[in-house]
Amino acid sequence: MKLRFVNRFYKPIELRLKKRFFKPIRRCLKIELAKRYRSVLGVVGKVCFIGITGSCGKTTTTELIATILAKQGQVRKGSHTNTAYFVAKTILTVLPRYRFCVNEVSAEFPGAMEKSVKLLKPQIGVVTHIGQDHYGSYRNLESTAAEKGKLVEALPVGGAAVLNADDPYVYAMRQRTKAQVITYGLSANAMVRGENVSCGWPRPMSLDVCYEEKRLYVQTQLLGEHWAYAVLAAIAAGIAAGVSLERAVEAVKAFAPMPYRMSPHKTPDGVTFISDNWKAPLWTIPASMDFMRKAKAERKVVVIGSISDTPKSFYHRYRAVIRQALDVVDKIVFVGEHSRSALRARPHPEDERIIAFDTLYQANSFLSNYLKAGDLVLLKGTENADHLQRIVLSRTNGIACWREKCGKIRFCGDCRLQHSAFVPTDKVQAVVSSK
């Protein structure tokens, strides 16, 4: 009894101390150790460090670059988790015998880029796009570009800056470095240029890659024409690191889509889901709708969760999505506590193509009866907030957890709670009424 009382009293104090004091101290020590180890690698090793930043496409570009560079030697990569602490963790796993270290670098708040760059000390820097992914921190594209451009400024004279020639904010960064500049894009002035980009589900994206006097056809496994930029950025980075165009193209052909980033899932009942639900800034919606417009399927359905990184109200966010999707798909399903705003945003109040649900459980119950073989369903939302992947899991491995706002930052398929039964109390509620 006494021991139980002691545990009940001291355990919360111990947890608070760990979170407030010990964890930050441990992180600071690891970052400082990584700084010193990176300096040692600069003397005893011949590792080429590559940093990738941008408002979207960072993870796929990082993984593509690592795949291409693996043709040349051992690669250590750090993708998806990209703060200074995780950059430090990646550096501490690099051995002197490695040839490359490829790391995604975040600029989630002002000053974050400078901290990460001082750790990584990259010889090659890649910038993808400048968009409104961090609207809460920067408010405008100029501020975002100023922060992300610090990666380019930190490059040494003998290094290389790989820049998107089609993004004016990225292209302007060539003035901020003394390193060699290699541009990529679809425009005529790009050094690594893409032409004849095409994607029409079930056929994945293909393009011609032109560099100097060479032109090679690339059939990728990626879904959506917008991935042409990630492919071109990775090939350009490979060229900067000494990989031939031919070897880079071969590596790209074998690359599969990253989870939750336009990744396909065909369920046993013949329905195909396209998971693009890692994050959903409003400015990325057109690319997703373009994919659905060019896709071939019996019926097309879009499931919309949280739309982020915009000062617009929920009503105006959903109205923008409806305008882009209404002529493209057969049904638009909105999910979440603000989904009623989507019903108010309908051009015609009685339009049954647009429906909304308060919870994901309700939406899944509807889709279980509505979807049939041959349908193509795009899941677009923010995974940490919406967990839309549970719709796919309910048709494959099965899932018992339908918690709302669970707060866990991990894929539902990897979560130990996925088979722990939890159903919302309002599970019987049907389609949200517009009344």
Description:
There is one protein chain. By secondary structure, the chain is of the alpha/beta class. The chain folds into two domains: about 35-255, UDP-N-acetylmuramoyl-L-alanine:D-glutamate ligase; about 265-415, Protein-Tyrosine Phosphatase, Chain A, CATH 3.90.190. It contains 16 helices and 15 strands. A nine-stranded mixed beta sheet has the order 2-3-1-4-5-6-7-8-9, sandwiched between helices. Strands 10-11-15-12-13-14 form a six-stranded mixed beta sheet.
In short:
The protein has helices at residues 2-44, 58-69, 84-91, 112-120, 135-138, 141-148, 150-153, 168-171, 228-240, 245-253, 285-294, 314-325, 340-344, 360-370, 383-386, 389-393, and strands at 48-53, 75-78, 100-104, 124-127, 160-164, 180-185, 192-200, 203-211, 214-219, 263-266, 272-276, 300-304, 331-335, 354-357, 376-380. With 435 residues, it is of the alpha/beta class.
Topology:
Blueprint: H1 2-44, E1 48-53, H2 58-69, E2 75-78, H3 84-91, E3 100-104, H4 112-120, E4 124-127, H5 135-138, H6 141-148, H7 150-153, E5 160-164, H8 168-171, E6 180-185, E7 192-200, E8 203-211, E9 214-219, H9 228-240, H10 245-253, E10 263-266, E11 272-276, H11 285-294, E12 300-304, H12 314-325, E13 331-335, H13 340-344, E14 354-357, H14 360-370, E15 376-380, H15 383-386, H16 389-393
Parallel strand pairs: 1-3, 1-4, 2-3, 4-5, 5-6, 6-7, 11-15, 12-13, 12-15, 13-14
Antiparallel strand pairs: 7-8, 8-9, 10-11
Helix pairs in contact: 1-3, 2-9, 2-10, 3-4, 9-10
